């Protein structure tokens, strides 16, 4: 087996991953059998003319993916399962909205099948933004899954959420959409940088925003808003001289001219549109509208609503890649501004 490994010194793939890829491919195509003993660290170092650290990294990577196992005093062996087999993933989402469904569908597509051709086992639960349901579901299923992919939208229970998530083995945990303060250990995540994304998007929209004097952000008390978004809103308005106006009682909203409205929820978007129609103001001229999260409806509504949106498809696919790699890496999901006639 060892004699067939070819290390390419000029490849952009790290040497330890070249070793990993060879062993994984060998298992896939039955060239390497379950139970087969691997060379020792020193044997492989000598054969490939690589450092001990390179071989250690390769074996550690394979061990974390449960591809190989070690027996003290006897070395490393190929496990009985092929890569991808034995994966069982719990997805715990706060809701199954249009955007969360995009995340889920992309995750499922990217996970695909294991290398025996069977679908990777996935279970999806939603907790409807309710901490008690979240707690019950997670505690009930601790220890049953190889990985836990969780969207932790529980701003009013941050400390308890962190304590609960700390019960999940960190090598099995992948957080989506937002981080949770107070977590210990090394875990994986694919999150939005809400404050930075908002400031960058509004800065990109400045040529269109400059015709408005006031920026309004709709922040109803029952919405699951991020404090980082609010911080970004005030920071941007201060930096560029806009009057910043948070609106907490959306039902009492009075539409004013020379104002732009940032809507975090779709229902608030419809409220702003409906109330603007009761005035003489024109959307895109005296009144501007920016919504969060792209949907097909926003492409056509009023000939197009300007949107700030993270890439939900990318979020799901990156999460699946992190599960397969079993690597505790933190990834900021990309965000984009889509300008349309509403601004």
UniProtKB/TrEMBL annotation:
UniProt keyword DNA-binding present: yes
Residue ranges of every copy of the HTH gntR-type domain listed in the record: 13-81
The UniProt record lists the keyword Transcription regulation: yes
Superkingdom: Bacteria
Keywords on record: DNA-binding, Transcription, Transcription regulation
Protein name: Transcriptional regulator
């Amino acid at each position: 087996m060892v004699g067939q490994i070819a290390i390419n010194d000029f490849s952009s793939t790290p040497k330890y991953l070249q070793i990993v890829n060879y062993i994984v491919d060998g298992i896939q195509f039955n060239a390497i059998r379950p139970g087969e003993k691997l060379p020792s660290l020193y044997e492989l170092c000598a054969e490939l003319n690589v450092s001990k650290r390179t071989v250690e990294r390769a074996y550690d990577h394979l061990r974390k993916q449960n591809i190989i196992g070690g027996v003290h005093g006897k070395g490393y062996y190929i496990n009985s399962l092929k890569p991808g087999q034995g994966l069982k993933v719990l997805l715990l989402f706060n809701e199954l909205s249009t955007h969360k469904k995009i995340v889920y569908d992309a995750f499922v597509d990217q996970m695909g099948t294991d290398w025996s051709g069977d679908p990777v086992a996935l279970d999806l639960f939603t907790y409807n933004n309710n901490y008690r349901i979240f707690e019950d579901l997670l505690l009930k299923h601790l220890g049953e899954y190889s990985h836990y992919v969780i969207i932790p939208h529980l701003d009013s229970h941050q400390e308890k959420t962190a304590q609960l998530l700390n019960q999940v083995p960190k090598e099995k945990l992948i957080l989506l959409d937002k981080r949770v303060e107070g977590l210990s250990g090394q875990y994986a995540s694919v999150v939005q940088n809400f404050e930075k994304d908002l400031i960058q998007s509004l800065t990109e929209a400045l040529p269109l925003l400059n015709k408005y004097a006031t920026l309004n952000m709709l922040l109803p008390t029952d919405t699951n808003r991020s404090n980082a978004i609010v911080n970004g809103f005030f920071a941007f308005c201060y930096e560029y001289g806009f009057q910043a106006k948070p609106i907490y009682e959306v039902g009492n909203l009075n539409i004013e001219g020379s104002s732009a409205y940032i809507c975090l929820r779709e229902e608030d978007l419809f409220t702003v549109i409906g109330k603007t129609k009761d005035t003489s103001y024109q959307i895109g001229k005296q009144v501007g509208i920016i919504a969060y999260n792209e949907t097909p409806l926003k492409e056509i509504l009023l000939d197009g609503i300007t949107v700030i949106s993270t890439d939900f498809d990318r979020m799901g696919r990156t999460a699946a890649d992190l599960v397969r790699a079993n690597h505790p890496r933190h990834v900021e999901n990309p965000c984009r501004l889509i300008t349309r006639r509403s601004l």
